[in-house]
C-alpha cells in the first residue's frame, strides 16, 4: 500500500468521524448537561439535611 493510498484512507476516516461527531454533539451536550444538573440537584438534596432553616434576627 502506498503512502498516497494510506493518506486517502486516513482522510476518509477522519472526515467520516468529523461528520458523525458533528451530527451527535447536540445529543452528547444535552445528555451531559442533564446529568450534571441531576447530580447537582441530588447533591443539594443530600446536603439539605444539614442546613439549618430559620431567620437571623438583627439587633
TrEMBL record:
The keyword DNA-binding does not apply. Its main location: mitochondrion. It is a single-pass membrane protein. One of its GO terms (cellular component) is MICOS complex. It is found in: Mitochondrion inner membrane. The keyword Ribonucleoprotein does not apply. InterPro entries: Mic10. It comes from the Eukaryota. Keywords: Membrane, Mitochondrion, Mitochondrion inner membrane, Transmembrane, Transmembrane helix. Component of the MICOS complex, a large protein complex of the mitochondrial inner membrane that plays crucial roles in the maintenance of crista junctions, inner membrane architecture, and formation of contact sites to the outer membrane. Belongs to the MICOS complex subunit Mic10 family. PANTHER family: MICOS COMPLEX SUBUNIT MIC10 (PTHR21304:SF0). This is MICOS complex subunit MIC10. The gene is micos10.
Amino acid at each position: 500500500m502506498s503512502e498516497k493510498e494510506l493518506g486517502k484512507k486516513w482522510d476518509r476516516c477522519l472526515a467520516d468521524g468529523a461528520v458523525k461527531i458533528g451530527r451527535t454533539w447536540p445529543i452528547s451536550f444535552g445528555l451531559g448537561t442533564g446529568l450534571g444538573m441531576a447530580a447537582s440537584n441530588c447533591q443539594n438534596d443530600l446536603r439539605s439535611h444539614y442546613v439549618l432553616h430559620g431567620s437571623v434576627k438583627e439587633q
